[in-house]
Amino acid sequence: MEQHEQFFNCPHCGQSISVLLDLSVPSQEYIEDCEICCRPIEIRYEVSADGEIVFEERRG
Ligand SMILES: [Zn+2]
């Protein structure tokens, strides 16, 4: 399983956190709780044909 650690700032508390993306799934959308403030973050990503990761996070 190919994984990628994506770093971003939590949209709630602003802390730098990371999530592990499972790149065997080319596009996903799910909710993950912030490891600092435990509030829900909507994670969305897409792997383009050339392998570039388009990542987006929002308040869940
Ligand atoms: Zn947070």
The Cα radius of gyration reads 11 Å
Structural class: mainly beta
Give the oligomeric state: single chain
Arrangement of strands in the largest sheet: 3-4-5
Supply the number of helical segments: 0
Which small-molecule ligands are present, each listed once?
zinc ion
Number of strands: 5
Characterize the structure shown.
The protein is mostly beta strands and 60 residues long. The protein has one domain (3-59). Helix content is 0%, strand content 60%. It is built from no helices and 5 strands. The strands form 2 sheets. The chain has a 3-stranded antiparallel sheet with strand order 3-4-5, with no helix packed on it. The model has no long low-confidence stretch (mean pLDDT 95). Zinc ion binds at residues 10, 12-13, 15, 34, 36-37, 39.
Structural descriptors:
single chain, 60 residues, mainly beta, three-stranded antiparallel β-sheet, two-stranded antiparallel ribbon, binds zinc ion
Give a brief description.
This protein is mostly beta strands.
Secondary structure layout:
Blueprint lengths: L2 E7 L6 E7 L4 E7 L6 E8 L5 E7 L1
Antiparallel strand pairs: 1-2, 3-4, 4-5
Bound molecules: zinc ion.
The site of zinc ion has 8 residues, from loops.
